[in-house]
Every structure is written in structure tokens, then in C-alpha cells.
Design a protein that fits this description.
By secondary structure, the protein is mainly α. It folds into 2 domains: 139 residues, Cytochrome c-like domain (Cytochrome Bc1 Complex, Chain D, domain 2); 100 residues, Cytochrome c-like domain (Cytochrome Bc1 Complex, Chain D, domain 2), CATH 1.10.760. The strands form 2 sheets. The chain has a two-stranded antiparallel ribbon with strand order 1-2. It has a two-stranded antiparallel ribbon with strand order 3-4. Helix 2 packs across helix 6.
Amino acid sequence: MGTAAKAMIGVAVFAAGVAVAMALRPDAQVSKDADTGQPAATPAAWSVPDIDALPDDPWGRTVRHGRDLIARTAAVIGPEVADPARRLSGNNLNCQSCHLQAGTQQFGLPLVGVFADFPQYRGRSGRVNTIEDRINGCMTRSMNGKALPEGGEDMVAIVAYLKFLSSGRPVGAPTEGRGSVRLADLARAADPVRGKAVYAQHCAVCHGSDGAGQRAGKAGDAKGYTYPPLWGADSYNNGAGMGRVTTAAGFIRSNMPLGTLWQAPVLSEEQAFDVAAYFNSQPRPQRAGLERDYPRLEEKPVDAPYGPYADDFSSEQHRFGPFGPMRKPAKSSAKP
């Protein structure tokens, strides 16, 4: 595992196995693909193609450059690189601070299968997004930086790497192991005070009591972090997905502390929620224009940590929960 990949930040999607036996029952409700209306495909088994098997040709070099941009973001396009024109990321995190092992770790917010999901409709923008849109969402939020020029060398390389990681996966097919393990809502609100104690016991040894992380070298050398900051000026901004408590909690439970794998979590679900609430309560860069996110407010996740909202629940409850009372009951798909 890469060193920056061992970070605790972060957070947001879920893994749900397909119940094949249920699907084969004649009385079972068969899930449908949202785009085609056809029965949803069974998720593909987890696998990662071997990047070292690629030849030293234009395609292989482009894919490897894309991997470098994910694994060594701070050294390639970070705010401390020598060429001012290459300072595109606004902090010294690496993309793999959240997308562990350059996006290849199961339930570590992997990038495997992502390419096959786009274009897709996204509620945050209220429109169908391209893969380039999604990359620039990360650049301007998690990396607190600038959008990459579409068609530029860096954007093409990242897209090539994502395509490579999705080799052999049908367009739109689900990928088992994407995101992080989804946790059930707590019956109570996530508690930053309890989370502070969890942080002191399990997280501070790597990320520091002040949340500032540990540098790989020294400030100004463009080497980034061995353990990235969870808050402060060099962390993700308040528009990032990791700012959602449920996203952060799922990531933590699946991958943290250092060396944890999703099959054997160290923290309880309550501890994961509480520590996520704690570090997401700390100061961090503020993104302008968040009120324009989710133009259809009814599509806004209940744990979005910023308004406006489509309901009358408090901002505090949207940040920390309990989230259950805010969720609308799912519409029944059963026929009369």
C-alpha cells in the first residue's frame, strides 16, 4: 500500500452484493437498470488489470502518467511544484489519499469500473456529466484546486488510466467493491465530542493531534504527505464528498486505521460516525457557490453539510443526523 494511500480521510459510496438466489425466485422483484429498464446485471468479480504489462508505447506511457497523477498528485501538479503553470491542485494531498492504492483497493473508494459508468446523471450538477466533469469535481473540491483543461495532457492521461482500470467491464455494469461499505443510519446523531476521543486513540498517531498530517519531506518540496491532513488549509474543502458524514464514516469503517481492510474493521460503526463528525467539524477551506449545488433540492442527500434544503430539518441534523427521520420512504415497486 502506498504511504499517502494509508490516510484516514476521506469517504462515499457503498457496496451491496446481488442476491442471486433471490433473483432466481419466481416471486422476486427483479431490479432494473435505470437507463435501459432492463434487468440489472450481476456485479463483476473484483479484479485489477496489471499496469506493468502495458508496453512502453504511447498508450502505456499515457496510462502510467494517469496513474502518477492519481498516486503522486502533489509532486506532479501540486501547489509546490517548480513550474507555476503546473500548480493545478490547490492542496498537497494525492488523489490516492481517498482513492487508496491509486484507486485499486476494494472498498477503498476505488476507480475500477468508474469509466464504464459515464456519462451519467448526477444530482449535484443537475445534469448528465462526462467522466471529465467528474474528474474536475474532485479537482475543485477534494483537491481544492483548478479544473484540468479538457483535452489537455493531464486530463487525457487520467481518463486513459480510468479506462484501463475498467478494462473488460461492460458499460453501465455494476462493479462489486466500488465505493466503501455502506453503513446503516445511526439511531442517534453522530457525536463530535465522542469522535474526539476516538480520534485521539486511533487517528492522531498518524494524522496529528492538530489534524495537520505528517509531511513526507518538508513544506515547499512538493513531496506531499505520508499521512495527509484531515482538516486545515491543506485539506479538502467543504464541498468535497468526504465532508458528508455518512461517506466519511463508510470509508473509515472499511479502511482505517492504517492497514484495516473491509473484511475486518477495527472501529465500530458508531465510532466511525463519531470520528467523521469530529474531523468534519474542524476548520477547512470554504468553497464558494455551494448554494448552486443540487438545483433540484429534492435530490440533495440528507447528509449534505450545507444548505439550502428542501425540508425544514435543521442544518445541524443534516450535518450529523439522525438521518433516518429525514429519509423519504422508498416507493414500492410491487404491482397491484
